[in-house]
Specification:
three-stranded antiparallel sheet, globular, binds 2'-deoxycytidine-5'-monophosphate, 9 helices, five-stranded parallel sheet, about 230 residues, alpha/beta
Length: about 230
Amino acid sequence: MRPIAIAIDGPSGAGKSTLARMTAKKLGFIYVDTGALYRSVGLYTLRRGVDTKDREGVAALLPDIDIEMRYDDRGVQRMILNGEDVSDLIRTPEVSMAASDVSAIPAVRAFLLDTQRNMARKYNVIMDGRDIGTVVLPDAQIKIFLTASPAERARRRFRELREKGVETSFEEVLRDIELRDRNDSSRDIAPLRPAPDAVMCDTTEHDLEASFGLICEIIRERTANGL
Ligand code: DC
């Protein structure tokens, strides 16, 4: 039997990664954070001093990039970029913007496609991103499109960054979120949009526990109807 895949797509700050991690733990699935792949390419591009919007320049770097996803004993995903663990380095606002830029480059998306698909070939996965249900895993048995208002997403992201000790302001986070939304939705390749068969889930009015409840309910319903 082919492994089960749950695709969670949506804009940044909708709670995808936290909820996907919780769901993976509950189901015993592997959680695949695909944004971390784009972030790793973004970090590498910044380090090489190449403009993250320069399509040819970034494409020319790809042969030098080796990205590996590893999972530690607790099932936490680690990103290994050319042998270096960059899992924490890819979480800064600067790398977020770089990731958004490089993710609009077709060569980058093609470069990362197999890594993502291979995970779903081998394991039961819950994978989050922007185009998982539409492009990466169009045959995923369950697809969820997670949203929340931009202000609510900025509030959540701001809190998260502050807890990590990253210096920033709410206004800056909101501006970044709106800019990234625009980038991610307007690009001509794999734009952020729900798959026709995705279940929409708006978490603006829900805290984490309630949102987790909604996700579990969607999965229960889909499973009860046969995958
Ligand atoms: O989910 P995230 O914030 O870590 O993603 C970083 C950037 O990568 C985001 O701006 C959009 C892009 N991305 C993408 O284009 N496709 C994915 N499957 C995941 C992320």
